[in-house]
Amino acid sequence: MKISIIGTGYVGLVTGVCLASKGHDVICVDQKQEVIDKINNLITPIYESGLEELMIKVIKTGKLVATTDLKSSVMNSEISIIAVGTPFGNDKIDLRHIEKSAWEIGSILMDKEHYHVVCVKSTVIPTTTDTLVKNVLESASGKKAGDFGLTMNPEFLREGKAVEDFMYPDRIVIGAYDNRSFETMKHVYEGFFDAPIINVNLRTAEMIKYTANALLATLISFANEIGSICEKTKDIDVKEVMESVTLDKRFNPRINNQLVNPEMINYLKAGCGFGGSCFPKDVKALISYSKWAGYVPQIIDATIRVNKEQPLKMINRLEEILRTLKGKKVAILGLAFKPDTDDVRESPSIAIINSLLEKGALVYGIDPIANQNMQKIIPEDRKSVWYSTDYKEALKDADAAILVTSWAEFIDIPTQDFSQLMKTLVVVDGRRVLNKKGLEDVGVMYIGVGLS
Ligand code: NAD
């Protein structure tokens, strides 16, 4: 099929590259010239494992082109997939980019004779597609929904595993305005192995995405809350508690006497909180939507409150030990919101660094690939903030180290490096991945989230 994708960020580019690799003719459109230039120079504007190789392949075979020219892209495709950002601002979802994109596509559809399907892939609150998007498309095109198709096809990929998740989806949810829209959209996913295709209405598709994210975020905050109780009680370690709880066969079944270890149990581990471009904004958008719709949510509201406090607890515990953080050099191991991505959006490291700076500390952040993105949020000034990729530089003469992101390279740091390089031997493990006993054996004071 001929597919245009509007918005070439994480979701748009991964979608475009993967659909092109499945044989579709894809046009990736973005309003930012620099994004398009990078793609055309065979460089991915974002880091995602396996993406660049696949992108180069599909560009070279002519299956994917990138442009800022929306008009020719819509005219020369059968489906337009909207994958623009839907940030959270002023206490609700900001649908500005969706509205603009729908208006631009609608204006082009006015002159298009052939049937065209518009698909919303961005995460949008329930009723967005069948009210805002539909109304804007109708006003801009002078046509009625039905003359053009309308679908809502949420994306469930995880950053860091985006290509794999897109290629091997658990399910493909297609919310459709009518049967013709659904049947057309289904062809996009032909050959996607055995993934079930879920045919629902537009607003159910929107709600499925929010529910999935709210549930996973709530699991994390639940584990963190249990961790906070453990921290207040001597000799209870949340790690032992949660590991044992999740051995229940309802969480972790055995097949042929082997534990399945489903990914879900990773969300039931205490840490310094969730971040990223989705969980925080999506849960907040769902809360705001729910209130607007007439229900004041309890559980997901607490999910956000627990998560907001979680990173700052690391600082409080450090302050108790060092007494003051003023003038203290603190190494931050990891800036990305999780390993294998360069995304720092809403990363717990931001709250941690800001709090340290407020308290007069000197921050030395290290990350294998996220330094550049962090620079845009908290710039390096080389007076109180430094960034590097070399953990030895960060640990040298440090008064404390806080592990924020569980990158493999940090887990593998030899315990002697902490004891030999640091000035004061205090390590806060915000993900419970470091070798507690090994660190204590070389004289390091180990502080773990969920452990008194
Ligand atoms: P992003 O910010 O990385 O990319 C959005 C892109 O859209 C940007 O490059 C921007 O320049 C472009 N854009 C905005 N308005 C445009 C317009 N009118 N015309 C052309 N281009 C335009 O965003 P993202 O992380 O890819 O997220 C996109 C959507 O997908 C969001 O709704 C998000 O919630 C959802 N989502 C994201 C993920 C994820 O892991 N990042 C996963 C699932 C769903």
Question: What is the number of beta strands?
Answer: 18
Can you summarize the main beta sheet? 8 strands, mixed
**Protein structure class:** alpha/beta
Question: Roughly how many Å is the radius of gyration?
Answer: 24 Å
* pLDDT < 50 stretches: none
Looking at the structure, what is the overall shape? globular
Estimate the mean pLDDT confidence. 97
End-to-end separation in angstroms reads 58 Å
Number of helices: 18
Bound molecules: nicotinamide-adenine-dinucleotide
Task: For the structure shown, list the relevant keywords.
452 residues, alpha/beta, 6-stranded parallel β-sheet, 18 helices, globular, binds nicotinamide-adenine-dinucleotide
Structure description:
The longest helix has 30 residues. Helix 6 links the parallel strand 7 and strand 8. Helices cover 44% and strands 15% of the residues. It is built from 18 helices and 18 strands. The strands form four sheets. An eight-stranded mixed sheet has the order 3-2-1-4-7-8-9-10, with helices on both faces. With 452 residues, it is an alpha/beta fold. Helix 11 packs across helix 12 and helix 12 packs across helix 13. Bound molecules: nicotinamide-adenine-dinucleotide. Nicotinamide-adenine-dinucleotide binds next to helix 1 and helix 5.
